[in-house]
Amino acid sequence: MAIKTTHDLTKIYGNKVIAVNGINLSIEQGCTFGLLGPNGAGKTTLLKLLMGLQRPTAGWSELFGSRMTPNAASVRQRIGYLPTNPRFPPNLTPIGYLDLIGQLFGMPAEVRKPRLASLIRAVDLLPAASRPIRGFSTGMTTRLGIAASLINDPELLIWDEPTAGLDPSGRKYTLDLIQELGHSKTMIVSSHILSDIDRVCSHVGVLHDGQIIYSGSVRDLKQTIGRNHVEMEIEGTDENIARFRETLQGIPDVIGHQLRGYWIEVRFRPDASLADPLLGVLRAASESGIGVLSLSSTKAQTEDAFIQLLEADQADGFSRAYNTTQTVGSRLDGAPQG
After folding, report:
1. What are the tens digits of pLDDT across the range 186-201?
2. E strand residue ranges, 17-144
3. 17-21: long-range contacts at Cβ-Cβ below 8 A with a sequence spacing of 24 or more?
4. What's the chain's average pLDDT?
5. Burial, 108: exposed, middle or buried (Cβ in 10 Å; 0-12, 13-18, 19+)?
6. Are 262 and 303 within 8 A, CB to CB?
7. What is the pLDDT of residues 267-287, one digit of tens each?
8. Which pLDDT does position 248 carry in this prediction?
């Protein structure tokens, strides 16, 4: 069941900047949806339109079956929002700020107080619970923002660039938390970092120049490049490596390989399941006297698919825009005349 839908959603600022251009999107309940795009693609504007924090120039957005407008406060109470680089009243403490947010949601004290206490502990801010927010690091501020987005136990979480400015440990904490929350909540996570989306999201929408150029599962995005291979770091004598390479040619579903120093890339049929042929490759390595030091699927696979989408979108930009204009014109021609 779709929890969020949009129809020709468009936002133009002052007849000068087209930030969002005719977006049609459907997000299913229970999924972790990644909004992926380069900086300036329109991600933050789109998220604000989805929540009704801005009025669209054209089209509409619907959440839980209700149109999203600036007046849709009752629907927004079912959302937990984490903006990019959140800012909070500097003189408040985490306890004071979360208590204030809970009051704004109309939560009674007997519900609000235990929940804010458990959230402060969960985001590891207990030692700083009574300190003014003004002295917080970026990581601490983000963790407080995460707690604030969860205070009302929302059905939908919308997090905008949640790992922006975080150090490696803070980034890992946030990504691990997204994975954990994704088991029980619907999430929309925006990012320009491909590896983050690949790691935590089941579905993705690729945004480029204000348009969605791909929407579907992360798995299907990878399959758009038609690649199915692994990279192996190996060790062995030149003779053993030559024997291993010869053996690879006879393994079913292996369609080729390439050796670069002590790294070998083994390519499989795009539609093949890796389990059996990969087992054959590892057995061949062992029988050839080859040691396998590491093995991984291609790390750049999501990146390759993303780049291909952007290149295709740029190449087809004129024809796509022309076809869209023709479609709109057909709708107008067929509309009842007043």
Report:
1. 999 999 888 888 889 9
2. 17-28, 32-36, 58-63, 66-67, 79-82
3. 18/210, 19/45, 19/210, 20/45, 20/46, 20/49, 20/56, 20/210, 21/209, 21/210, 21/211
4. 87
5. exposed
6. no
7. 888 777 878 889 999 999 999
8. 94
